[in-house]
């Protein structure tokens, strides 16, 4: 027997809260898990959101990044918060990764400027 939509949403919320902790997931993983929990195909999700099914496949596989506008469309269709898609591992963890990348890039820029200053 197929679960009612409300039951599916509750089960998904419980799953996301309990099963995803301590594991690393991509935005695409969250979309796929959410879509499958609602018994939707990629074609179904494409019809609901207006996003081409080929793009949905690329989002789920991780070969295409999900921006804010797409995350918003997907989150509405999947009845989840857009932050679950944008920050699948929690805002704090994903921000820490982003900040580390920014820091490393800043160090490289500073080092490059210092080398250029030594040449001049």
Tell me the strand percentage band.
under 5%
What order do the helices and strands follow? HHHHHHH
Helix content percent band: over 70%
* Major sheet: none
- By DSSP, the count of extended strands is 0
Number of helices: 7
User: What is the oligomer described by this structure?
Assistant: single chain
Query: How far do the termini sit from each other?
Result: 75 Å
Mean pLDDT: 83
Radius of gyration: 19 Å
Per the principal axes of the C-alpha atoms, what is the gross shape? elongated
Structural class comes to mainly alpha
Which residues sit in consecutive blocks of at least 5 with pLDDT less than 50?
1-5
Kindly describe this structure.
The protein contains seven helices and no strands. The chain has 120 residues and is mainly alpha-helical. It is elongated. Mean pLDDT is 83; it is low at 1-5.
Summarize the structure.
The chain is mainly α.
Describe the secondary-structure layout.
Layout: H1 5-18, H2 27-37, H3 42-49, H4 53-61, H5 68-78, H6 82-86, H7 91-119
Keywords:
120 residues, mainly alpha
């Amino acid at each position: 027997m197929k679960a009612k939509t409300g039951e599916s949403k509750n089960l998904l919320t419980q799953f996301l809260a309990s099963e995803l902790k301590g594991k690393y997931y991509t935005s695409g993983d969250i979309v796929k898990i959410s879509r499958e929990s609602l018994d939707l195909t990629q074609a179904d999700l494409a019809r609901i959101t207006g996003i081409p099914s080929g793009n949905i496949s690329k989002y789920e596989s991780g070969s295409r990044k999900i921006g804010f506008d797409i995350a918003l469309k997907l989150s509405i269709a999947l009845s989840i918060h857009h932050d679950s898609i944008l920050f699948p591992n929690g805002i704090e963890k994903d921000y820490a990764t982003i900040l580390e990348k920014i820091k490393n890039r800043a160090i490289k820029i500073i080092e490059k400027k210092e080398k250029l200053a030594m040449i001049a």
